[in-house]
Design the sequence.
């Protein structure tokens, strides 16, 4: 597979306010770098993320979407990430079923203390999306002429 | 259209060294709705805030975007600043260009480009912000404690000492709980009653504490600060105001064949009874199931002998409705039933007992007056085997997956007390692990082994077989020496797992407090909010939240009390305005949102709506703003998009997505 | 099934019900359509034959707002949809009188055509079907003419009813998830090509949405401004894909797999595959669940367990 080094993917990261957003803050204050392709959207909880937001991101040209929340059992609202987990599992499975590369979507649990994990996850995800290339499948459908 | 001001912070060189702040401001000016954009050294400083204030005035701003450090750092600062200059605080959004940008990127061009996009997303969001008002709700300055054990008593005392009214509801005839059944307490070996009864008396005598014994919570409505609770005061058949507690009725009662709950069924009590001598209140109740008068209509001995004329057969259950600002659950525990553990012969032999039964046997007020004897023949045992972890740390569904936490210590206590009082008795303890993490706990256990010669064997007991001669053949394995062991014992004591009290599930349902698969109540956060339930205004004290010993229970009780006091000290509660809200024209009334709400904040009401000229009664979801914490679970469950979250609305989040992907 | 008609008429006459929700005879035996009947005269056109495939439960949402009781005829599989609507408070059980009508598999004229019959003039609903065509008379086996969904029948039991008329039969012969598995086995490129081909047929007529008993919002998100998705759906093919994914997602855990979406799609898109994929995943990951089987049950997306599968299970192939 040829990896296009010039390709700069658009990546949307939804982060819950209590754990993962704080984890991203910690990655920042620890100066743990990850590619600028990642743009974070703050949500109160992973359970706030509607599958429609994820599809919307793809519709608007995102190449990858990642959702980060508190570890299961540690949700600030006690149960939010459990619901998010089921929703995302089913959504990702459906995208996979429709032939969209399953590497383009991901869920990671990152706590407020896991700055290192946040940075590692983002580096890894960006690398994965770069290797997958531009989001042609969803893109194809986006501009039927 | 909003009139948005964008303020780009240099944060000294923290941002400005990697992000071209002038460029960010310049690009921001091109965004829709932006009428002003500027950069400054330190936006959070007094001068920076004054700059924001001046711009609000000069440009008539309706919204602010501050491109700076994390909102977790200064969102509150800039909200307050906005408010000070007459803007609604919720019209402020932060673009995090420090932690999420300048600090992690090295290339100036790249970082600037990203900062521009982050600013754009925040601007897109603010364009859709609406002013939000924090709501207020009143606080009833009275607390309810459910459960009158040591946890409930301590919580009530601490709350009452701070000057607030507290009611204790206890379902048995007396407060005191499990601790009143214990003989001695570890690791100091002081007598349980000696330290508990003064607290019971304090609670009973406290002018701020009202105790409802033989009573149960029947219905709970309302929310934090404003609960309404129905308490069923069961008919005692004895007038509490008249009874002097002389005890003659109990002596004379002809029905004396009911197993004593307090003594774990090891002996019998009368139909009219107080559970134990130091009961509070010292007023008996008539057990109507056992009472001859209630069963046949003939008898009435107690009425005849009562000089105070306190017996009242016609008494009926009474429902008391009271308002509370906070509710503490302190429902405690029981030991599990052993019917699934046939291998220990618990149901076959009277000499196989639980540790709690041993407490009663060793207690001077217990069924054997404190003499250690076999319940089958009254003989003094010479060989006693203790079995640990009966039903605790159990991998199958017979028992519990968790560690009951207290058994290692009380078994060491029992072993030590027996060896101290009866040095000729051999004591063997079969254990899986000995867990003694507590102040002076391991020292205590080591004394049992080293000073008192208790024989600890790492291994499990496979079978206890009653022998024809009345002894018990205990077969176990010694995992360290890797051999099978047989002991001919006179008595076997089972460290039976503890579980939350029956009925706690019902209470949790009434309170919409969440509960785990083991029936322990769930705390709001396992580390940071361990005494609060996720349901606002509901607090947890004692074993209802998880296995605990007495010192831990008392500390947790105090902690719960502090949380209650903190709540009751407020006259009004400010509610977070970032809550969910249902659009009545879109709501299907399908109930799915309520199912995922962790706070029980959603209810339904039938309401007449006017849907573009069509008037009809519809079932509509209603969010209680005082209970909603703003997680948003309901918004995604709602298929029609009727449920939306203020401050993080669907359109706001989609605008951010669009701005980033543009 | 004269018996259903007689009974419905009797209940209408004695005032037990104010109206009857059933099927009105069409031009041909094979095109009956859902209809309300309010009088004896109306009832002349009432029919219940083996072409009465339409699931009437969704009409009870509107009927529940009307004065008085409505009699509704529900086949065994329709009763699941009714139960699901009941659990979501969309229909009023008190205002419903359910006749559980017998069903031995419903027929589809499309399948008669698919069997190679051309120029159909008339057809009856016997076993085998007697078909009169421009080119003479012919026969088609009942099974061949049966709706695809009836080959994966949920069983002959009604889960909710007031009385039962007629016998039912479990007509399932095929594996419900065979088609889903066939697609799962494809390479991503093949899957993509398959769905691109199917979904490019979509004309956004909304027939699937209108017929679906689970897709019963007062106002669809695709018609409201809540997600900024309104009025775009028909101009952009990505939105088509998104529409069908979101539609399937919104009914996930609530879809009883009644198959009406595929039955009514004028373009013949196998829309039920989306729903069935979700059902298969739910069954695999969270335990067997049949929406509508129990009106008290909690749906799989409004419940969870602490040790649910992680979303990475998809990449690991655990949902295949």
Sequence:
């Amino acid at each position: 597979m040829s990896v296009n080094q010039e390709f700069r993917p658009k990546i949307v990261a939804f982060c819950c306010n209590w754990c993962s957003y704080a984890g991203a803050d910690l990655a920042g204050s620890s100066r743990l770098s990850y590619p600028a392709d990642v743009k974070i959207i703050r949500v109160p909880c992973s359970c706030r993320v509607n599958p429609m937001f994820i599809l919307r991101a793809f519709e608007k040209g995102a190449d990858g979407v990642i959702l980060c929340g508190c570890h299961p059992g540690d949700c600030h609202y006690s149960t939010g990430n459990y619901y998010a987990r089921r929703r995302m599992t089913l959504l990702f499975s459906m995208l996979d079923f429709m032939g969209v590369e399953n590497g383009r979507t991901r869920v990671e649990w990152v706590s407020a203390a896991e700055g290192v994990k946040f940075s590692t996850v983002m580096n890894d995800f960006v690398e994965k999306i770069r290797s997958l290339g531009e989001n042609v499948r969803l893109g194809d459908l986006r501009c039927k002429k | 259209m909003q009139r948005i001001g964008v303020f780009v912070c240099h944060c000294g060189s923290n941002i400005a060294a990697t992000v071209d702040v002038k460029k960010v401001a310049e690009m921001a000016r091109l965004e829709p709705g932006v009428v002003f954009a500027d950069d400054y050294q330190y936006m959070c400083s007094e001068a920076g805030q004054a700059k924001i204030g001046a711009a609000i005035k000069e440009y008539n701003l309706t919204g602010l975007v501050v491109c700076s450090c994390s909102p977790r750092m200064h969102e509150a600062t800039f909200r307050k600043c906005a408010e000070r200059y007459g803007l609604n605080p919720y019209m402020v959004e932060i673009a995090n260009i420090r932690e999420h940008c300048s600090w992690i990127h090295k290339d100036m061009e790249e970082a600037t480009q990203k900062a521009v996009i982050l600013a754009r997303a925040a601007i897109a969001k603010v364009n859709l912000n609406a002013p939000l008002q924090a709501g207020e709700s009143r606080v009833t300055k009275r607390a309810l404690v459910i459960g009158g054990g040591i946890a409930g008593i301590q919580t009530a005392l601490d709350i009452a000492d701070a000057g607030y009214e507290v009611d204790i509801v206890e379902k048995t005839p007396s407060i005191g709980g499990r601790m009143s059944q214990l003989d001695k307490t570890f690791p100091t070996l002081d007598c349980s009653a000696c330290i508990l009864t003064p607290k019971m008396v304090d609670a009973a005598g406290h002018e701020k504490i009202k105790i409802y014994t033989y009573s149960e919570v029947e219905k709970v409505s309302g929310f934090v600060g404003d609960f309404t609770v129905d308490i069923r005061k069961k008919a005692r058949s004895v007038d509490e105001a008249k009874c002097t507690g002389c005890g003659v009725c109990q002596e004379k009662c002809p029905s004396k064949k009911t197993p004593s709950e307090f003594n774990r069924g090891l002996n019998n009590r009368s139909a009219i009874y107080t559970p134990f001598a130091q009961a509070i209140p010292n007023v008996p109740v008539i057990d109507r199931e056992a009472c001859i008068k209630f069963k046949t209509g003939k008898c009435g001995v107690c009425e005849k002998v009562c000089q105070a004329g306190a017996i009242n057969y016609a008494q009926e259950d009474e429902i008391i409705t009271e308002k509370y600002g906070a509710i503490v659950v302190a429902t405690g525990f029981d030991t599990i039933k052993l019917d699934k553990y046939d291998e220990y012969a618990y149901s076959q032999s009277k000499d196989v007992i639980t540790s709690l039964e041993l407490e009663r046997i060793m207690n001077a007020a217990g069924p054997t007056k404190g003499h250690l004897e076999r319940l089958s023949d009254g003989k003094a045992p010479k060989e006693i085997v203790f079995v640990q972890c009966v039903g605790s740390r159990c991998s199958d569904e017979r028992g519990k997956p968790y560690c009951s936490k207290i058994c290692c210590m009380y078994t060491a206590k029992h072993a030590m007390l027996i060896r101290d009082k009866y040095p000729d008795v051999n004591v063997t303890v079969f254990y899986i692990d000995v867990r003694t993490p507590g102040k002076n706990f391991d020292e205590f256990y080591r004394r049992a082994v080293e000073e008192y010669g208790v024989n600890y064997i790492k291994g499990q007991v496979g079978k206890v077989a009653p022998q024809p001669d009345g002894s018990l053949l205990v077969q176990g394995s010694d995992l360290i020496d890797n051999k099978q062991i047989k002991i001919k014992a006179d008595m076997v004591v089972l460290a039976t797992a503890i579980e939350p009290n029956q009925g706690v599930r019902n209470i949790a349902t009434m309170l919409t407090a969440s509960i785990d698969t083991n029936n322990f109540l769930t705390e709001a956060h396992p580390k940071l909010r361990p005494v609060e339930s996720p349901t606002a205004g509901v607090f947890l004290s004692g074993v209802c939240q998880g296995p605990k010993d007495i010192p831990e229970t008392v500390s947790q009780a105090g902690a719960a009390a502090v949380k209650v006091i903190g709540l009751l000290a407020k006259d009004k509660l400010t509610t977070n305005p970032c809550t969910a809200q249902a659009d009545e024209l879109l709501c299907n009334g399908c109930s799915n949102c309520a199912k995922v709400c962790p706070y029980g904040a959603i209810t339904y009401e039938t309401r007449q709506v006017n849907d573009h000229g069509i008037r009809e009664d519809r079932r509509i979801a209603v969010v209680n703003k005082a209970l909603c914490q703003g997680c948003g679970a309901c918004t995604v469950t709602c298929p029609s998009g009727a449920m939306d979250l203020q401050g993080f609305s669907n359109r706001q989040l989609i605008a951010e997505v669009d701005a980033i992907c543009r | 099934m004269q018996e259903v008609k007689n009974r419905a008429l009797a209940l209408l006459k004695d005032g037990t019900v104010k109206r009857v929700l059933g099927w009105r005879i069409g031009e041909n035996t094979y095109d009956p359509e859902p209809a309300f009947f309010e009088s004896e005269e109306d009832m002349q056109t009432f029919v219940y034959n083996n072409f009465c495939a339409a699931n009437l439960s969704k009409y009870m949402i509107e009927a529940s707002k009307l004065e008085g009781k409505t009699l509704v005829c529900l086949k065994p599989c329709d009763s699941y949809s009714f139960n699901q609507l009941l659990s979501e408070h969309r229909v009023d059980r008190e205002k419903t009188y359910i006749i559980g009508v017998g069903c031995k598999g419903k027929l589809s004229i499309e399948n008669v055509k698919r069997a190679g019959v051309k120029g159909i003039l008339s057809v009856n609903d016997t076993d085998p079907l007697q078909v009169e065509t421009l080119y003479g008379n012919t026969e088609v086996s009942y099974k061949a003419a049966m709706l695809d969904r009836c080959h994966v029948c949920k069983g002959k039991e009604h889960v909710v009813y007031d009385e039962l008329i007629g016998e039912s039969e479990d007509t399932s012969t095929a594996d419900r998830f065979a088609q889903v598995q066939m697609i799962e086995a494809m390479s991503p490129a093949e899957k993509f090509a398959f769905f691109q081909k199917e979904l490019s047929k979509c004309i956004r007529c909304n027939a699937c949405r209108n017929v679906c008993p689970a897709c019963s919002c007062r106002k669809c998100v695709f018609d409201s401004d809540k997600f900024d998705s309104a009025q775009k759906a028909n101009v952009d093919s990505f939105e088509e894909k998104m529409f069908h994914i979101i539609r399937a997602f919104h009914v996930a855990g609530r879809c009883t797999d009644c198959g009406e979406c595929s039955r009514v799609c004028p373009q013949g898109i196998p829309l039920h595959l989306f729903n069935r994929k979700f059902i298969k995943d739910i069954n695999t990951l969270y335990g067997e669940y049949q929406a509508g089987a129990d009106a008290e049950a909690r749906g799989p997306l409004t419940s969870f367990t602490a040790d649910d599968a992680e979303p990475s299970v998809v990449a690991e192939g655990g949902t295949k």
